[in-house]
Amino acid sequence: MRSALDKLISGAGFLLATVLLIAAGLLTWANVFIANEVHDQLSQQNITMPEKAALETQAQHDALDQYAGQPLTTGPQAKAYADFYIAVHMDAMAEGKTYSEVSGEFTAMTDEQKASPEGQALGQVRQSMFMGDTLRGLLLYGFAFATMGTIALYAAIAAYVGAALMLLLSGLGLRHSRKTADAPVTRAVPVPA
What we know:
With 193 residues, the chain is mainly α. It contains six helices and no strands.
């Protein structure tokens, strides 16, 4: 009876280890696929991280110095560039206003106001803000996907470790089932009082 139970539990352990190995393989594939896609898509943009001399604030130096002059090819680089380079320039250009606020001001103008030098300047700021927000969004999507790839890698490692542990425990369970199957059966004999 004990041997059969050990075999049943060990079989379930081997099945779980198989499922974990399949999951680990898929998660590893997801990590590699995402990393390659993020790298390839960012590389095609030919963005070079700014040099240290081009940075103005301590926050920019803290976030961007480590990437100075490098091609932008990774998710963390994309986030740093979006948040500490593009966003800083957009804030300066629009005096801290968002694209929505600048666009609202521009669309509220009359045609005559839009034709004036101030209106044309605001229109240029509006267009630059739109392009900056679009680029920031795309870079931050790259960062988000890179983060998902990293999470997939950690999940794959956990699945590999779990599979190895289940294989070990299942192997020990089978070994134990053989020992209990080979052991002589002893029955308790009542002792007369």
